[in-house]
Amino acid sequence: MTQGNRLDNLSWPAPRPPSAELSRSIAEHCQTGLKPSRPASVHTRVLVSIALSGILFGTLLVIGWRRHPPHTAVGIALLGALLWGVIQASVLIVGFGRPPGRRGSRLLRWGVVGIVPVVFFAHLTSAATNVLSLEQFFVVPRSLRSTVVCGVHSLLFGALASVALFALWRRSDPFSPRLTGAVTGLAGGLVGAIALDMTCPSLEAMHLWLGHGLTLVTLVVAGWFAGRRWLAP
Amino acid sequence: MSEPTIEELMLAYVEGNADAFDSLYRRISSQIFAYLLRLTRERARAEDLLQITFSKIHRARASYFKGAPLLPWVMAIARRSFLDERRAAKSRAEDLSQDGNIPEPIKVDHGIPIDLADALERALDELPTAYREAIQLTKIAGLSLAEAAEVLETTPTAVKLRVHRGYTRIRERLEQLQSNSQ
User: Fold this and answer.
1) Which domains does chain B have, with CATH numbers?
2) How confident is the model at residue A202, as a pLDDT?
3) Whole-complex ipTM
4) Which of A34, B28, B58, B165 could serve as a FRET partner for A4 with CA atoms 20 to 30 Å apart?
5) What's the pLDDT at A42?
6) CA distances from residue A40 to A156, A191, A231, B17, B85 in whole angstroms, order as listed
7) DSSP structural state of residue A204
8) Is A103 part of any domain?
9) Is the predicted pLDDT of residue A47 greater than 50, yes or no?
10) What pLDDT does B106 receive?
11) B121 touches B79 (CB < 8 A)
12) How far apart are CA B152 and CA B82, in angstroms?
């Protein structure tokens, strides 16, 4: 017989009840003015999350295309929106598609949080046609200014989308709120980063990394820290 | 008619049924309290944390997803309450000893244990927190390895290992106590 089996045969200490006074106090707190509180289903929340992000993504896209009208704007916008939709839905389904306690593997969510920003940076790098040196980048006022403008826009829209998602999933994950927060930040960040990537005419590498890519990383990190406060009950 | 499950009671409580809360409390409070007592090793702290845990459950009841297992959900809330309280205690200067460390709970020497249950209880209390809570969740509260892993933010394999190591230490401690009492 193994030692585990020997211990299994022992009677483990029975759970001790809390004091009657404490139980009364808790019951009073939880039952006073108790009203029905109807939660939305997981699927509803996922669909609303995608719709909310889509509205913000579309808004940013419209603003972007109005400022920089390209020749094949409609085709590129449709393709981009489709690509964005697929990525966004994957992130949201992996992060929230199942209720806490039945959610997919932690490894998969870590994978999404780690891999999507890397893929996005790889895409930005491959899209870049010219690379300014660090010195040139900071000396040329226009390149620095346009990077700041892009960064602020993508951060603003990304943050707006992230906050909406945080509100929608508030207090829903006591298990791994930081990781879920990072996924939320990623989902929100994709709105700003991809829409801006599609509409910005600059193809300079530093501009793309700092003005577009950094937003995604910033929102993932911010989501990680905000998750414990907002997503844990 | 069969007794409703704790998940069904939770859904009724979410719907505003106060009686369902009473039944639910009767069914799960001892389990949560035992877990918190095992984590804190102090009755007063465990009682405070139980109150906080139920307050959080009440506040977050709308976010409970239909069909999700309830016990891991409430245990995770209890654990998070414990971690938050420990974090807050760390930042309170008055809780620190002169050398800047968090004082360990005072260990009371109970003398020779009177029976096996007493010895087992003491051996469990002397385990490191990680082993103690793994055994508490899986062997006493009855969570599966996967559910306990979710609560402890780790993998089922890690939980299994912690339980195994905890068992080894308990066995050694029981043998030691047995030889002391002879």
Assistant:
1) 1-104 (1.10.1740.10), 106-182 (1.10.10.10)
2) 81
3) 0.78
4) B28
5) 81
6) 28, 24, 16, 18, 30
7) B
8) yes
9) yes
10) 47
11) no
12) 12
| In a domain? residue A23 | no
Domain-embedded: residue A4: no
Using one digit for the tens of pLDDT, what is the confidence trace for B37-66? 999 988 899 999 999 999 999 999 988 888
In the predicted model, is pLDDT for residue A10 greater than 70? no
Supply φ then ψ for residue A132, to 5 degrees: -85, 150
Please name the residue ranges forming H helices in chain A. Answer: 3-8, 20-31, 42-67, 73-96, 106-127, 134-139, 141-168, 177-199, 205-207, 214-230
Mean pLDDT of B119-144: 89
Cβ partners under 8 Å of residue A220, min gap 6:
A113, A117, A182, A185, A186, A189
Q: How many whole angstroms separate alpha carbon B61 and alpha carbon A121? A: 40
Number of folded domains that form chain A:
1
- pLDDT, tens digit, for every residue of B74-85? 999 999 999 999
Exposed, middle or buried: residue A24 (CB in 10 Å: 0-12, 13-18, 19+)? exposed
In the beta sheet, which residues pair with residue A130?
Answer: A204
Of B17, B76, B140, the CB nearest to A175: B76
**Chain B CB within 8 Å of residue A33 CB:** no
Domain that holds residue A85: 42-230
Identity of residue B89: A
Q: Which of residues 35-74 of A touch B (CB under 8 A)?
A: 35-39, 41-42
Q: Are B77 and A174 within 8 A, CB to CB?
A: yes
